[in-house]
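Hey team,

Filing this mostly as a record. A colleague (T.K.) asked me to run one chain through the structure pipeline before their review meeting, and I want the input and output archived in the tracker in case anyone asks later how it was produced. No errors, nothing strange. Just documentation.

Input sequence:
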Amino acid sequence: MSFHAPKGGLSGLPLSAVPAIVADTETTGLDTANDRVIEIAAVRVVHGEVLDDRFEELIDPGLPIPPKSTEIHGIRDDDVAGKAPFSDVMSRFVQWAQNDVMIGYSLGFDLGILEAEHTRNKVQWCAPRSLDVRHLMQVVAPDLPGQSLEITAEWLGIEITDRHRALGDAMVTAQIFNALIDKLREKDIVTLAQAERACRNLTSHRNAEAQAGWHEVAGPSRSDDALLLARIDSYPYRHRVAEVMASPPITLDGATSMRDALRTLIDRKISSVFVEPGGTGEWGIMTERDVLRAIAGDGPGALDAALDKYAIRPLVSIPAEEFIYRAITRMSGRDFRHLGVTDSAGNVIGALSARDLLKQRAGDAMSLGDTIEAATTPAELGRIWESLTMVAGSLSSEGVDPRNIAAIISHELCAMTRRATELAELQMLDEGRGPAPEPYAMLVLGSGGRGESLLAMDQDNAIVFEAGEPDSEADKWFQRLGEIAADTLDGVGVSYCNGGIMAKNPEWRKDIKNWRATVQQWISKAKPEDILNSDIFFDARPVLGDKPLGDALRREAMEMAQGSKIFLQHMAVRAADFDSALGWFGRPKTDNGRIDLKKFGIMPIFSAARVLALQLGIDERSTPGRLLAAREHDIHGAHLIGNLVDAHRILLNAILRQQLRDIEDGVKLSNKVELAQLDNHEKQELTWALQQSPGISDLMGTPTRF
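Output structure:
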């Protein structure tokens, strides 16, 4: 049995989150074409840890083992006599390997001899997606005297045991790989595809290996990976729970008898009713199944009891603004058939049943939310990339509106920030620092708060807590919480913010009193840096903790801004102050073949939308939502808004598609688009979108610089 086709969807995963096996072989010699495999062994690496899950088998090569080879690995003819042949062992190994990425030291040799064995045994060969640790060492420490396993292990302080046996070498290689992850990060190599790209650039080393008969060690090409994209039903990613819920929900008082509740279910032709909180303080639910269980347990007399006796509390609910895929994963992951639906204030406003979602699937592509919520370590949290990039790529290929895709990515960014903070809370307990000393809210700012983040995610977050001066014990607690959360997010692919906008920094971690003073200072002084800080703050979205505290702070900040005409004027001038992206003859200006579409296109549009929202008192976060709401007011230049909304969509789409290409190519993600990779229609569309920028000055009522 051969390996399966290389697994796609892994390219954007951080190396620590890549599902991998670390393998090694022992052979009768070093001739990949003619020598035979006599032992194969591997260990599984999951979330950066070497597991006890191992594979180790000897193989009967069908010919004598040369004494010189035995001197190296110690395996004799008697050891392999009567063992299974290569084809049987390889069949078991492939089944055990589960199509994970194969890692090894000088892996090209192992793959070369495995390919020859497949040919010899008339088994079709399909190389696994793979990574050579020796190549990674050449990237990290090119000047190290020698690249042997012994020298590498010594350099990293790793002890070698059972050298020149397959399992022992695989164990050491796994430890080396894990030790290299942080060193690769220092060279800006974070993801699997970036590591593959760095290794492909070792041209001279790879040429020498090819001449020696070694196999190419590489990942799938972009076209191969594209073929592996899951075809998913895009409906749950384009629509919200509010669109399919039953509203208003059918509710009954807890004192209602079970008999009357059952009659309501039958008469209304529904499968559940919600039970009002009453004195319990919590909503409950009663379903057809619950009625049957009550009768089975207590007999027909259960029908005379009050609903409160059998109601299931608390009612599990989901916000109406969530995407449907989130509801599907919540139901399928917990085996629920009914959910309550809540508004932004937490009020129950609807009901959602499995019947409502009957036409939707709950396959692997729907597991984004559960992956995050179930993560118990930072490495597990990093696995979200495997699903997130796959879903984004699939939806993009199906022509789904990029604004919907950005909203999904932003949902998961907020969820990752929330989970990273929860894991940080647990680590604080482990460190003996105790629980949070004050009620607090973790806020996601900027594009994540607006619901417009794409795959080049970085951290824009802040913390507001109830009370505590700078450098107080409470402030120090939240500083440490912010540090752990920031480190966790960086480790899972949400990079540190270059501008330092992170809750671990004192400027973005304050109690409510000091936040009010800070916002007041921003608005009264209106310096360029103050406007920049306040800009993203108006997009804040609380994701964990005392959410009303976070919402109240944002609301107060908006009210302060709306009361200062001078501040709003400064914001308007800044929003309209940008350079044109178009040069002579109306062609996009590029730098090394790329154009920064956030700087020259997206940013002016979302900045203008934010100003309009503040000027007009619009409580919207998304850019299209703000612009369309502003169009309903009698403002100058309202006729330009439709074009800006379309331009925003086109620009988002161009950036997203470039990021998907860059993920597979191992290029560091950014907001820069390579024009040479666009077809003529895409170039024309992009040029049109950039031509809409002068309309921003008209909306802001400021002179244009074009």
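Quick notes for T.K.: DSSP finds 30 helices and 17 strands in the chain. The domain at 235-360 is CATH 3.10.580.10 (CBS-domain).
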